[in-house]
Amino acid sequence: MSPGANPPDFLMEPEGWLEVSDIYMRNEQAKFLNVFNERSFGFAGLLDETALRLIEKPDEKLGKQSYECVYRELGKGLLLLTCQDFFFDAVNLAQARQALALFRPTNDLGFFQTAYFEYQIPGEDRTYEVVYSRNA
Most CB contacts within 10 A, which of 15, 38, 40, 61? Predict the structure, then answer.
């Protein structure tokens, strides 16, 4: 695997491509973790916020026209949605699974074959689950 031209994030050998998208509870949490000057983050809000963002992100990515060039060159890609919410636990996972069971893309352009959700529950190994498949 090697870095791509963005998009995609990575080119895979012998063929294919991978787009990685981080999922946070909300944008303020992303800034807290990734922007040096942002050193405060308050925990308040809906418990299912991460689950709701997990539904929004693949819908956004599946309908993004900017993947057309790499799709034409390499075919369908893989989408990896990585959970970066440091409060993510078994309760959030149950809410995410419930939301994903109802997920139907609103504007799937057909550029991705499969989307995976990667997460880690405290005290457990990282887990990868298929959350979307073009064949399903």
Answer: 61
Query: In whole angstroms, what is the distance from residue 54 CA to residue 80 CA?
Result: 11
Closest Cα to residue 78, out of 20, 18, 11?
Answer: 18
pTM of the full structure: 0.81
**Full domain range(s) for residue 84:** 2-133
CA angle, corner 33, sides to 39 and 12, nearest 5? 160
Percent of the chain surpassing pLDDT 70: 78
Task: Note whether 95 and 47 are within 8 A (CB).
Answer: yes
Query: Looking at the predicted structure, is the pLDDT value of residue 37 above 80?
Result: no
Side-chain half-sphere exposure of 111, counting CA atoms within 13 A: 24
Distance CA 3, CA 16 (A): 12
Number of domains in the chain: 1
Across the beta sheet with 17-23, the strand order is 2-3, 10-11, 17-23, 77-83, 112-119, 127-133
